[in-house]
Structures are given as structure tokens and as C-alpha cells.
TrEMBL record:
Name under which the protein is recorded: Pca operon transcription factor PcaQ
InterPro entries found in the cross-reference section: HTH-type_LysR_regulators (IPR050950), LysR_HTH_N (IPR000847), LysR_subst-bd (IPR005119), TF_PcaQ (IPR012787), WH-like_DNA-bd_sf (IPR036388), WH_DNA-bd_sf (IPR036390)
A Pfam family the protein falls into: HTH_1
CC per GO annotation: cytosol
Recorded family membership: Belongs to the LysR transcriptional regulatory family.
This protein's record includes keyword Magnesium: no
Gene Ontology biological process terms from the UniProt entry: 3,4-dihydroxybenzoate catabolic process; positive regulation of DNA-templated transcription
């Protein structure tokens, strides 16, 4: 009616009868408790209340159309991929189950997982090459222009192969100097935390160091040697539970750090990425519940 200028033309466009249009307008006015239209013989014009309602109604219809379009894109077989930056701590713990739950929904958007150092992934995210990054929160200077959603916290652990000489000892810290250690390299998210731990707990420096956060290398190396791996719990948790690796009794409660999702500030995620975000939150809730 507002676009066509008369009930007659509005009825023709909608392919309904004039009484049906008049009835719908009257019902809407009853619901809103105010008159929207000043009717004349030739048609009518909107009253101030009608003008206000029309603006909001048009916005709502536009949002609804966009929602339908986004759903069509979400389910399309050629939908754009969900681009995920994954740090080591979530690659073996949070992400696999979240991806399974996402895939079970039968969406067309393929998950594309990119790994790398924190600074690299955050730069990719900031440039729009990634939709989100999952892992420990980066340093303040790396989070400029980004938002962080905390999912859960986890500590750093000292892990070694099953049957390691220090396994089962109540206080193995003093013997660390006898063994090679795998440590995160400078510039990694957890390296400052590891350095603070050695200082605060007065831990002896290891005999030799290999710097890595590689899951594949770390698992293979410490299973074949007496090296000790200082790493985020999430990286080795499944191996610890399976008895493949053992956690040495070195207190690390003060190394708890936030694990979560980084996204670009002020920008909405694509629909498929939002769906994955829901799966990540669900799995994180299960992790928090133990």
C-alpha cells in the first residue's frame, strides 16, 4: 500500500482481493494499537506512525532476505571454505571433535585448517586470509584489531615417554639438568610462561635444548629418547591419557593460560564460520566440564 499508493494497486500486485488487503491493514493496526493509514477514496497515505513502522518493517524484511540468502550459500556445494588458523594446543584436543560435529551437519563449506606460529596466523587473520584463529591468546601487540573469546584454560606440562627415569618420582625437578628438553621457541605464545616458570620455581636449566612446537616431531622424539617435552597440556593430553607419555611431577599450576577464538573486531563471521564457532563452544563446554 505504501509503495503503490492505493489499496486497489496493492491488491493487484499481491494478487489478492481489496477486502483482504483492507482486513490485513486493519488487523495490523489493531495489533499495534494505532492507526497507520489515512484512507481516502483514491487510496490513502501513511500517518506518522505508519512511516515509523514502515521503516522498521523494511529493515526487518531486508534482514530476513539476507538470512535466507546466507542459508542458501551455507548449504551450497560450492560454498567458500571456512578458513581456520590452528595453534598446536587445539590441533590435537579441541579442533578434531569440533570439526566432526561441524561436518555432521552436512554443510557445503569445507573446513580449511592452517597451522603456523602465532604471529603469522594473527597477521593472516588481520588481513582477512583467515576467518578465525584458535589457540592460546597471543601477546597484546599481536591482538591489535582482534577480539578474543575465552573458551577454557590449560597449563603447561613436563611430558616424557612411559618408563622415563624421572617418571613416578615425587620431586624430579632437581634432575632436569641431566636431560635434554624440548621447549617452545622464542616468539611462541607459551615461551615467556616457560621462562617465568623456570625463574619462579628455580628450576635447573636442561643439559641441552631442542626448540619446537611441532606435534609430530615432539611425539616421535620423546618416545625414542629420554628427552622431556615442555608444552601446553592440550598438545599431549591424548597421549598422556593413553599412557604413551607420562606427566612428570613438576608443579605447573601457575602456568594456566587462556585458550580461545580470535576474530577480527567489527566484522561478522561468514555463516559457515558461525556454525563452526557453535561447535567449538560446545566442545569447549565439554572440556570445562571434565
Amino acid at each position: 500500500m505504501a509503495r503503490e499508493g492505493s489499496i486497489v494497486r496493492a491488491a493487484d500486485v499481491l494478487a489478492v482481493t481489496q477486502p483482504a488487503v483492507s482486513k490485513s491493514i486493519k488487523e495490523l493496526e489493531t495489533i499495534l494499537g494505532t492507526e497507520l493509514l489515512d484512507r481516502t477514496r483514491r487510496g490513502g497515505f501513511l500517518l506518522p506512525a505508519g512511516e515509523i513502522f514502515l521503516r522498521h518493517a523494511e529493515s526487518s524484511l531486508s534482514a530476513l532476505r539476507q538470512g535466507v540468502e546466507q542459508l542458501d550459500k551455507l548449504n551450497a556445494p560450492d560454498a567458500l571454505p571456512v578458513r581456520i588458523g590452528a595453534l598446536p594446543t587445539v590441533s590435537a584436543r579441541l579442533l578434531p571433535e569440533a570439526i566432526q560435529r561441524y561436518r555432521s551437519q552436512g554443510l557445503g563449506a569445507t573446513p580449511r585448517i592452517v597451522t603456523g606460529p602465532t604471529a603469522f596466523l594473527m597477521t593472516q587473520l588481520r588481513q582477512g586470509d583467515l576467518d578465525l584463529v584458535i589457540g592460546r591468546m597471543g601477546a597484546a601487540e599481536e591482538m591489535t584489531g582482534l577480539l578474543f573469546e575465552h573458551l577454557y584454560s590449560e597449563p603447561i606440562v613436563f611430558a616424557a615417554r612411559a618408563g622415563h627415569p624421572l617418571a613416578g618420582l615425587a620431586s624430579p625437578a632437581a634432575d632436569l639438568a641431566r636431560f635434554e628438553c624440548l621447549m617452545p621457541p622464542p616468539g611462541s605464545v607459551i615461551r615467556p610462561t616457560v621462562d617465568r616458570l623456570f625463574l619462579a620455581a628455580n628450576l635447573p636449566r636442561p643439559a641441552a635444548v631442542v626448540e619446537t612446537v611441532s606435534l609430530a616431531f615432539g611425539r616421535a622424539y620423546i618416545r625414542a629418547t629420554d628427552a622431556i617435552w615442555i608444552i601446553s597440556e592440550g598438545v599431549v593430553l591424548e597421549d598422556l591419557r593413553a599412557g604413551i607419555l607420562t606427566r612428570l611431577a613438576i608443579p605447573t599450576a601457575d602456568t594456566q593460560g587462556p585458550v580461545g577464538i580470535s576474530t577480527r573486531a567489527g566484522l561478522a563471521l561468514p555463516p559457515a564460520a558461525e556454525t563452526l564457532l557453535g561447535s567449538l563452544r560446545l566442545v569447549a563446554a565439554l572440556i570445562r566440564a571434565g
